[in-house]
Amino acid sequence: MRMNTKKVKIGSRVIGGNNPILIQSMTNTKTEDAAATIAQIRRLEDAGCEIVRCAVPTMEAAAALGEIKKQVSVPVVADIHFDYRLAVAAIEHGADKIRINPGNIGSPERVRAVVDAARERKIPIRVGVNSGSLEKELVQKYGGVTAEGLVESALGQVRLIEDMGYDNLVISIKSSDVMMCVGAHELLAPRTEHPLHVGITEAGTLTAGNIKSAVGLGLILHQGIGDTIRVSLTGDPVEEVKSAKLILKTLGLRKGGVEVVSCPTCGRTQIDLIGLAGQVETLVSGYDLDIKVAVMGCVVNGPGEAREADLGIAGGIGEGLLIRKGEIIKKLPESELLPALKAELDALLKQKKGS
Ligand code: SF4
């Protein structure tokens, strides 16, 4: 059961309420370089990114948002730290949402200038609190950085903006400590109706980041908490989008796409199954089909597992079986397994388009 949050419009997208949980990522190009940023946003869009965030550390970056906005259709969020003038400029150049940490923007007057600009354009503000920049008083009050401190900080900053008469808000609380982040969301969700953007910050490189994000986001989302998510990875942001999609699908929060199941390989494997599974994963990512594909190393579990799938491959000695809905349709040399699977996928796609 999803928490009932308020609806918030971000460009052409709406989050909150019963709207689907949207996938965000963040560009790692220099935003000032509009061409490079546009190219990366397009790759992210193709991968399934639904909201994109760009760092705006300079006035030049704020100005580049104007060009970026013209060339991409996904909503663009401007990420601002320290300088309220950058936030105001980003809004003027068409940002669909801005992310600030009011704590580092400075005086209430400066926060008010940002709020006024957002109000004029009717764009939401994400109030983002991070464990690394929790206010000193709260660190002292709670004897360190704690979930309680993060929640108090976020709610205090939200109140500051609400008291300025603006409630078009999204909240995020991030910590690289996964269980602290989970605890903070459990405390925060019942205390606010604003939609929540959820992520584990500074999660790490591909393996560590994916595992931490899957555990953290899994525990949070499974409680019905969260309206948008980001998987933070040190690497190509396209990987963040792929991981976010898989997390949502694994939790049953999103349907569609080709699911690949593959065996871990063992002493019975007689084909290059690890290589084949990787190739299959790349191949299927280009198909808009809602099916399961099994890639199995041998005939012990292969045909059985493949029976549960729409399409399957079970390896033999330098050869393999191609299986459709549990039925063996061909025995092929190893080198022909991938092209044969592609032909099956093409046929299913054609069938889908024709229906
Ligand atoms: Fe081993 Fe076959 Fe199981 Fe793969 S499917 S792990 S090759 S027994």
UniProtKB/TrEMBL annotation:
Listed GO biological process terms: isopentenyl diphosphate biosynthetic process, methylerythritol 4-phosphate pathway; terpenoid biosynthetic process
Pathway as given in its UniProt record: Isoprenoid biosynthesis; isopentenyl diphosphate biosynthesis via DXP pathway; isopentenyl diphosphate from 1-deoxy-D-xylulose 5-phosphate: step 5/6
Residues that, per the record, bind [4Fe-4S] cluster: 263, 266, 298, 305
Entry's cofactor comment: Binds 1 [4Fe-4S] cluster.
Protein EC: 1.17.7.3
Catalytic activity annotation: (2E)-4-hydroxy-3-methylbut-2-enyl diphosphate + oxidized [flavodoxin] + H2O + 2 H(+) = 2-C-methyl-D-erythritol 2,4-cyclic diphosphate + reduced [flavodoxin]
Residue ranges constituting the IspG C-terminal domain according to the UniProt record: 259-346
Domain of life the protein comes from: Bacteria
Top-level enzyme category: oxidoreductase
Family: Belongs to the IspG family.
Function per UniProt: Converts 2C-methyl-D-erythritol 2,4-cyclodiphosphate (ME-2,4cPP) into 1-hydroxy-2-methyl-2-(E)-butenyl 4-diphosphate.
UniProt-recorded name of the protein: 4-hydroxy-3-methylbut-2-en-1-yl diphosphate synthase (flavodoxin)
Chain's gene name: ispG
